[in-house]
User: Fold this.
Amino acid sequence: MSDEESTEYYTLLCDDPSHEVVLIDCGPCEREVILAVRMVTGQSLWRSWDLARQAPVALLGGLSAYRAQSAVAVLQSAGAIAEWRQELEPGERTATSP
Assistant:
């Protein structure tokens, strides 16, 4: 390499960390929520019913913010109480209360 040539190195950072979708509660429309869980997760009707009954439960993980928001919108339109959150990085911990 001559002095005129240079090599540049870049560090790529993930702008959009992964997110998860959490079903907090089915609300009054359990049947519609079970069908929404099925549509969002792609699971069987039995597994979707089981997941809905376990609320609060994390339904999906490793999603982009857009996909997580879309899944939450589907669940909320069915009457569920759901939210999306940023997943913790490996080794990262939540703060514990004293």
About this structure: The chain is about 35% helix and 20% strand.
